[in-house]
Design a protein that fits this description.
Blueprint (H helix, E strand, L loop, with lengths): L1 E3 L9 E6 L30 H4 L5 H10 L4 E5 L7 H13 L3 E6 L7 H4 L3 E4 L10 H4 L2 H8 L5 E6 L4 H8 L8 E5 L4 H18 L2 E2 L3 H6 L6
Parallel strand pairs: 2-3, 3-4, 4-5, 5-6, 6-7, 7-8
Antiparallel strand pairs: 1-2
Helix pairs in contact: 2-3
Bound molecules: iron/sulfur cluster.
Iron/sulfur cluster binds next to loops.
């Protein structure tokens, strides 16, 4: 769909999103459970139907639909898009050839291939303990280190309260000095206002970047924007 990037270093940029199905994690508070939760394991308790939620499309058709939006930036998100990275390569190269910048949103647990890395910029969002995932699944040091050295990579941590920043600080040892962004965990405007305000001073004190969730502020918890 055509929209604006709602989070992180490209906040507010006119763009189109490609959302891929499937994820190798299952965060309890995930705001896109319809991309992977076929059993109702997440907070929503809903078992989504993959036959209704997933639509296979040839990459050339995806590229044509994206070009029709006439946007300068394409954001590939999920789920976890790097689970399908080999299949993404022709689409990413085609978008580059038509002058599009491309960003991939990833949870940082999958090693990026050179073919993908040379075509995109990564927004990496490693998950904290409050995701409900054990550390051994959500933190993959080799993948984080590989992503950290790529040009333009930004790390974006979803935080619920200022105490979460201590956990982020621990993880910076894997990030090689790449920029850190803190984003409030929020699925409604009220939650966004409250959590952003609670985090602001502590993020500034750490010398990190702070991002809102612009799509929540503008449209609330609506799907498809
Ligand atoms: S990694 Fe992202 S898409 Fe996957 S379950 Fe967690 S929040 Fe949802």
């Amino acid at each position: 769909m055509r929209t604006v990037q709602g989070e992180g270093p490209s906040l507010g940029r006119h763009c189109a999103f490609v959302r891929l199905g499937g994820c190798n994690l299952g965060c309890t508070w995930c705001d896109t459970p319809y991309t992977w939760d076929w059993t109702g394991a997440g907070d929503s308790g809903t078992a989504w139907d993959p036959r209704a939620e997933l639509h296979a499309m040839p990459w050339r058709d995806v590229a044509e639909r994206l070009r029709a939006f006439r946007v300068p930036l394409v954001v590939v998100s999920g789920g976890e898009p790097l689970n399908q990275q080999r299949r993404l390569v022709p689409l990413l190269r085609d978008l580059n050839a038509s002058g599009h910048a491309v960003e991939i949103e990833t949870n940082g647990t999958v090693m990026p291939s050179p073919e993908v890395s040379e075509t995109v910029r990564f927004n990496v969002s490693p998950k904290l303990a409050h995701s409900g995932e054990p550390e051994g699944r959500r933190i993959v040091p080799d993948a984080l280190a590989a992503l950290a050295v790529l040009p333009g990579t930004a790390f974006k941590f979803v935080c619920q309260r200022p105490e979460d920043l201590d956990e982020v600080a621990e993880l910076t040892r894997y990030l090689g000095g790449a920029p850190v962004w803190i984003m409030p965990a929020a699925r409604s405007r009220d939650e966004l206002d409250r959590t952003l305000a609670s985090l602001g001073d502590a993020v500034v004190a750490r010398g990190w970047n702070l991002t809102t969730r612009l799509h929540i502020a503008v449209w609330g918890n609506r799907r498809g924007i």
